[in-house]
Structure formats: C-alpha cells, structure tokens
Design a protein that fits this description.
By secondary structure, the protein is α/β, with parallel strands linked by helices. The protein is built from eight helices and ten strands. α1 packs across α2 (42-55). The chain binds 2-amino-2-deoxy-6-O-phosphono-alpha-D-glucopyranose (GLP). It comes from Christiangramia crocea.
C-alpha cells in the first residue's frame, strides 16, 4: 500500500501491531514480534509508546526478537541496537526484560554459531513470529542479509556491504569506525513469520523499492525474495513508491 506520507503509514503499522497484541491478550496468548532498527520504524515505535501511555496498551504479553546487531558491539555503545531499542521503545513501555531478544554483539567468535542456532530455537519455542517489521537498506538488504544471502539462510554472522557501512558512517563518525560484520536473522528466519511488513520512506529508497517489488528475484537484491511470499505487504510513502 502507498500512503500520503510516512506519518500516516507509521500509524497504520502501529495500529496493526496493537491489534495483534490485543487479540492475543484476549486469548491469553503471547504476541511474538520481530523488530527492526534504523530510521524507518522510529515513528511506529513512537506511536506504540503513545498507545501505551494514553490508551493503556500493555506489552506484558509481548515477546520480541530483533533482526540484527552489529558485530562486535557493546550493548551500552551509542550505536548499538540494544541502545536504539531501549531509547525508542523498551524504556517507555511495560514489556518484561526477559521477553526481549537482540542478537548479542559481545560474543566470542567461536560461540557465535551455537548462539545463532539457539536464537532460532528460542523463536520456535514461543510459537514463531506473529509479525515481522522490516526496513530496507540501499543494497536491498533486509535485516543485514546483504546481496548473496540465500533464501533459506538462518541467523548467522555476516559481512556488511561497503554501501551499508557508508550509509552507517554518520552514526559512527566515519566509515572506518563501522563494524565490518553483524549478526542477523536469515531470510529463512524472516520468511517463517506469519505476517511481514516492509516499510520504506523517501525518494532515497525509491530505486531499491522498484528493484525489490518489480525486479527479477535474485540474491543480488535479497528483498526480491519477498515477492515469493503471500504474507508480505510493502508499506510505502509516495516518495518511496515514486519509481513504481
Ligand atoms: C540497517 C538495519 C536494517 C534497516 C536498514 C535501513 O542496516 N540493519 O534492518 O532496514 O538499516 O535503515 P534506515 O531505516 O535507517 O534507512
């Protein structure tokens, strides 16, 4: 769907999430959410915080799994996705800390593979993802699944694309400070979610949105894999949709 602007679109996504949480609450079940970082979902989180504070939306039954984290990364660093999620969402709602999962950027290299398997198993153990939010990088990455990622890939350590590191350089005060690696849920992990929403705003994303939606399905643009799934919706503002 294409919306007039990102503010309206972000509210729509927040209301959808709120509906899922509430319908699960009525059934006495947990809502399992896959969350993303970056500038794109910030207003969705703002709206969820508002729904919590002003309309009493509770997150007590919510379990979250974040898509990715830089590697290496200390959780208290300003650029960590732990910090991002705390500041933009978790510090302002009533979610239980032990229901929050974000890939650990502090692991020893030799422990990563096992950790990633356990991350997948934790998602399965709570019944799988009900809802997954995605942004898109200019390389066509979802999570940090860069070009070359396989459609059945699982959670793993990946190497970041040069363009991705350039795009992140402002946060890190120079590309040379951006980690070269990250831990990310795989395309296969994302695909298991029962509902997936990819959001994109602004003209800057228009060329990659055109490729993702209309381009040939290929590992060169990992987001094109989303064309294969029926549970995916693209939520765009007019600018991001302007090359479709
Ligand atoms: C990062 C994140 C992605 C995100 C992308 C786009 O690379 N790992 O999950 O989708 O950036 O970021 P932004 O929303 O800031 O454009």
């Amino acid at each position: 769907s294409v919306y007039e602007d990102e503010h309206i679109a972000s509210k729509k996504v927040a209301y959808r999430i709120s509906d899922i949480i509430k319908s699960k609450q009525r059934r006495g079940e947990n809502a399992v959410l896959g969350l993303a970082t970056g500038a794109t979902p910030v207003e969705v989180y703002e709206e969820l915080v508002r729904l919590h504070k002003e309309e009493g939306l509770s997150f007590k039954n919510v379990i979250t799994f974040n898509l990715d984290e830089y590697y290496p990364m200390q959780p208290e660093a300003q650029q960590s996705y732990v910090k991002f999620m705390d500041e933009n969402l978790f510090n302002h709602i009533d979610i239980r800390r032990d229901n929050i999962h974000i890939p650990d950027g502090t692991l020893k290299k030799e422990d990563i593979a096992e950790y990633c398997l356990a991350y997948e198993q934790k998602i399965s153990a709570v019944g799988g993802l009900d809802f997954q939010i995605l942004g898109i990088g200019r390389t066509g990455h979802i999570g940090f699944n860069e070009p070359g990622s396989a459609p059945n890939s699982g959670t793993r350590l990946v190497t970041l694309d040069d363009l991705t590191r350039r795009d992140a350089s402002r946060d890190f005060g120079g590309k040379e400070n951006v980690p070269t690696k990250a831990i990310t849920m795989g395309i296969g992990t994302i695909f298991k979610a029962r509902e997936i929403i990819l959001m994109a705003w602004s003209k800057k994303k228009a060329p990659i949105i055109r490729k993702a939606v209309e381009g040939e399905i290929s590992s060169n643009v990992p987001a094109t894999y989303l064309q294969l799934s029926e549970n995916v919706e693209f939520i765009l503002d007019k600018d991001a949709a302007s090359e479709l």
